[in-house]
From TrEMBL, chain A:
PROSITE patterns: TAT. The keyword DNA-binding does not apply. Residues 292-408 form the Moybdenum cofactor oxidoreductase dimerisation domain. Keywords: Metal-binding, Molybdenum, Oxidoreductase. Signal peptide: none annotated. NCBIfam families: sulfite_DH_soxC (TIGR04555), TAT_signal_seq (TIGR01409). GO terms for molecular function: heme binding; molybdenum ion binding; molybdopterin cofactor binding; sulfite oxidase activity. This is Sulfur oxidation molybdopterin C protein.
UniProtKB/TrEMBL annotation, chain B:
It comes from Roseicyclus elongatus DSM 19469. InterPro entries: Cyt_c-like_dom (IPR009056), Cyt_c-like_dom_sf (IPR036909), Cyt_c_1A/1B (IPR002327), Cytochrome_c-type_DH (IPR051459). Residues 62-150, 241-344 form the Cytochrome c domain. Residues 215-237 are annotated as: Disordered. This is Sulfite dehydrogenase cytochrome subunit SoxD. Residues 1-21 form the signal peptide. SUPFAM superfamilies: Cytochrome c.
Length: 424, 346
């Protein structure tokens, strides 16, 4: 069965309930909804209560309920020439907490997802080292490991929104992000095994895929907190996330997290390859471009309500929630506005608050059924306040493509339907 | 050494502090003795990245005219004969002076600061789906042609690992180091306003629905919700296992070829119904002279001929433009042919 998730029966109940609740709020007394007739889901025996369900091993690798079939990655076909060098988006509006399930972490490939037998995978370290080295996956699994939860955001996340509101749904505007617990070897330990020479100030990381993806990484970062990871959320990396081995570069743009990692070259200068000159550079209004814009600035988005997740229950108690993150640290505070930025309220943070990880916030309020202009504003542990899109444009114009961390606005109308808008 | 991280968020919410173990994996003096030394041949096989100063350039040379021929064969299906691009593939020529425009065109001529990046990228990743197939000479020729298309070098230019240093890229000075910390971060690190922060009510200035470019989710769902179940499938064709195996092998082909409903000619011709078809007969595809000759001689793509061709394309048809090393096992070739025929619209 793969029935489309249906809100209709519960929606009717909720509308009755909210009409009553609306009245109750006016009189200051709480009155619950009343049902006119008994609910057959309660009064009649249901098949799942009568007949046996599936046994163990019906699905040796378990899948979500068929009623969750809408919770999938989606692409925007007009963005790229084909699906091999393309991107899809995490369904943020369907998720809660901070961990992104492996199967719906967004994908970005430049030459398709390479399928590699771990027994055939090799990692080479060469360049300015005492001993150029080759490691098998077996070798790598014998080094000490660490576990860390980090967000990975593509530098182009929200890139379609520079010139104005364009895509209706936080999946499409903000879905080039996921947040995963990685298990891996500190990059430092592998570099120490090869012996980095004193003039080795840069690292070139290279993938084994058909794009031969390469990025230059300063040695200071490589030795600080980078990981060579083989597990995500406890299980092996997914093929589309770089199985069997990927680089983890905490807080920095996703393009640097080389997947299918096969080589690390130590050098004295950066390489200025395609992904750090032609792409992933930020063109400003005067025609000059910033390069090496590695750190992801503090950012947040309200995931519910949002265009793909309208308010279906009518006026009354409403849960507003969203996510926030910063490449510079943690997010101790998120503010939320219902009136387009005129008045702000501090949201409630819930769940682990980890360095360079996604954070979850909530703001519960009683919706009175009038239109809303929703925004969230992240403030990170360095005191950086997420800017408005106007503030961003003052510094960068509209041609930057990458690193758009401006405040997002959703307009919610009196029917609870939400739309991506800009305000002024 | 166990440090605990005090969580600001948890404190703000008045809940318990969560401790996160931050023990880092310790180094070992002299290393762990894991892995092995890389052999010089191994390093040489993988170490061919190029830097702006020319470090890492392969030895070779190529001229603009040779580059044009190669470009038309290997690159024009996506990038157009003159780098103008087909569909949404990257534009490779023009755009100088557009970086301050509303829609800048970023090409080698208008944007790329270093020639090394072009050589490195073409050699590393092109042609799309046939990486590592170009020789250094072919790479230099293609890059020379691209430079010529961008008016950076003349028609008679020969690019080599030596003349590389003579080329000046037009936008070499157009980049500067990330300065966000000094500019933006300083401007935005301040206590934010909480009440009456705007002059009066806020107005909507732009709506996404005006553009209507969001993919339609309903459309996606109808297909998924109603799987087509074939009743009593007739068991005459190749086995599903063979077709499935062929689908995996097809990945080697799909960078250049399409098959199925609406298949188009790309770098290579569309392959619908190829088994049993006349060679060189796909309408609208620009075949190589070798293919045109074979077609005139009446070559038919029987399974036997296809197996011989796909084993070793260059031996079967020496001047074919197909850049492909071949498939070793007969069974793999049969599988991919079964896949192609299963995808061919009836």
């Amino acid at each position: 069965m793969s029935d489309k998730k249906s809100f209709s029966p519960s929606r009717r109940t909720f509308l009755t309930a909210s009409a009553a609740a609306g009245g109750a709020l006016a009189s200051g007394q709480l009155v619950h909804a009343q049902a006119a007739t008994p609910d057959p889901l309660i009064t009649e025996a249901q098949p799942w209560r009568q007949y046996l369900g599936a046994g163990v091993d019906a699905a040796p690798y378990g899948m979500p309920s068929p009623y969750e079939s809408e919770v999938v990655r989606r692409t925007v076909p007009w963005l790229t020439a084909d699906l091999v060098s393309s991107i899809n988006f995490t369904p943020l509006h369907e998720l809660d907490g901070i961990i992104t399930p492996n199967g719906i972490c967004f994908e970005r490939h430049h030459g398709g997802a390479a399928e590699i037998d771990p027994a055939d995978h090799r990692l080479m370290i060469n360049g300015l080292v005492d001993t150029p080295m080759v490691f098998t996956m077996e070798d790598i699994m014998r080094f000490p490991r660490e576990n860390h939860v980090y967000f990975l955001e593509c530098a182009a996340n929200t890139g379609m929104e520079w010139a104005g509101a364009q895509l209706n749904g936080c999946q499409f505007t903000h879905g080039m992000i996921h947040n995963v617990e990685y298990t891996g070897v500190p990059l430092r330990l592998l570099l120490e095994e090869a012996g980095v020479q004193t003039n080795g100030r840069w690292l070139l990381a290279e993938g084994a895929d058909a794009a031969g993806m390469t990025r230059s990484i300063p040695m200071e970062k490589a030795l600080d907190d980078c990981l060579v990871a083989f597990k995500m959320n406890g299980e092996a990396l997914r093929v589309e996330q770089g199985y069997p081995l990927r680089l983890v570069v905490p807080g920095w743009e996703g393009n640097m997290w080389i997947k299918w990692l096969r080589r690390l070259e130590v050098g004295d200068e950066p390489w200025h390859h395609r992904e750090e000159t032609s792409k992933y550079t930020d063109l400003l209004e005067d025609g000059d471009a910033r390069r090496f814009t590695w750190v992801m600035d503090a950012k947040s988005v309200i995931t519910n309500p949002s265009p793909q997740a309208p308010i279906l229950h009518g006026p009354g108690p409403t849960v507003l929630t969203g996510i926030a993150w910063s490449g510079r640290g943690t997010i101790p505070r998120v503010d939320v506005t219902l009136d387009g930025g005129r008045n702000w309220h501090q949201a409630r943070m819930s769940g682990p608050s980890l360095d360079k990880s996604m954070h979850r916030f909530y703001y519960e309020f009683d919706w009175d059924g009038s239109p809303l202009l929703l925004q969230s504003r992240a403030i990170d542990s360095t005191g950086y306040v997420q800017p408005t899109k106007e503030q961003l444009r003052e510094f960068r114009g509209e041609n930057s493509i990458y690193h758009n961390n401006g405040i997002q606005t959703w307009f919610v109308n009196e029917n609870g339907e939400a739309e991506n808008v800009e305000v002024g | 050494m166990l440090k605990t991280l005090t969580l600001g968020a948890a404190l703000l919410a008045g809940t318990a502090t969560i401790a996160v173990a931050q023990d880092s994996a310790a180094s070992r003096e002299g290393g762990f003795g894991l892995g092995r030394a890389a052999l010089p041949e191994e390093v040489a096989a993988w170490d061919w990245d190029v830097r702006p100063d020319g470090t890492g350039l392969p030895v070779g040379e190529g001229d603009v005219w040779t580059g044009e021929e190669l470009f038309v064969d290997y690159c024009s299906a996506c990038h157009g004969d003159f780098g103008e691009a087909v569909g949404r593939w990257p534009v490779l020529a023009g755009g100088q002076g557009t970086l301050t425009h509303e829609d800048p065109t970023k090409t080698i001529g208008s944007y790329w600061p270093y020639l090394s990046t072009v050589v490195d990228y073409v050699y590393r990743a092109m042609p799309y789906g046939q990486a590592e197939s170009l020789t250094p000479d072919e790479t230099y020729a293609i890059v020379a042609y691209l430079l010529n298309l961008n008016n950076v070098v003349d028609d008679d230019f020969v690019l080599s690992n030596e003349t590389f240093h003579d080329v000046e890229m037009p936008n070499a000075g157009g980049f500067f180091m990330d300065d966000r910390d000094e500019t933006e971060v300083a401007a935005w690190t301040r206590e934010p306003c909480m009440t009456d922060c705007t002059d009066g009510a806020v107005e909507i200035t732009m709506r996404a629905t005006v553009l209507d470019v969001t993919p339609d989710e309903e459309g996606d769902d109808t297909a998924a919700a109603e799987p087509v179940v074939e009743e009593n499938p007739v068991e005459t064709g190749p086995s599903p296992e063979l077709i499935a195996a062929g689908a995996g092998i097809w990945r080697q082909c799909q960078a250049c070829h399409e098959v199925g409903e609406g298949a188009r000619n790309r770098v290579g011709p569309a392959l619908n119904g190829i088994v049993g078809a006349d060679a060189g007969a796909r309408e609208g595809f620009r075949y190589s002279p070798a293919f045109r000759e074979a077609a005139e001689d009446g070559l038919v793509w029987t399974e036997e001929n296809l197996i011989a061709y796909l084993h070793d394309p260059r031996s079967f048809m020496p001047r074919s433009r197909m850049v492909f090393n071949g498939i070793e096992a007969d069974e793999d070739i049969r599988a991919v042919l079964a896949y192609i025929m299963s995808e061919t619209p009836q």
